[in-house]
């Protein structure tokens, strides 16, 4: 179980860093679905990881990260209709 949680945590970290890096180098826009999905799933994976390791300060920041991503995704989806 620990190995699976570690893989989930590392995957989440890579996703969040990838979103930030791609946006910083203007490869994707912060309003793109890819950016939002990377942040949403990256944050969600990091929530799982930090809850498992009882790192609640980290859990809190990732919950906020996910809460920010969800309305942004909904707004983007509704804008495309």
Describe the structure.
This protein has one domain (2-80). By secondary structure, it is mainly α. The protein has helices at residues 2-24, 33-52, 56-80. The model has no long low-confidence stretch (mean pLDDT 95). It is globular. Helix 1 (2-24) packs antiparallel against helix 2.
Helix content: over 70%
Order of helices and strands: HHH
Strand content: under 5%
Give the rounded overall mean pLDDT.
95
Number of DSSP strands? 0
Shape: globular
Q: Runs with pLDDT <50, length 5+?
A: none
Distance between the termini: 42 Å
Number of helices: 3
User: Structural class, please?
Assistant: mainly alpha
Sketch the major β-sheet.
Answer: none
Summed up, the domain count is: 1
Radius of gyration: 13 Å
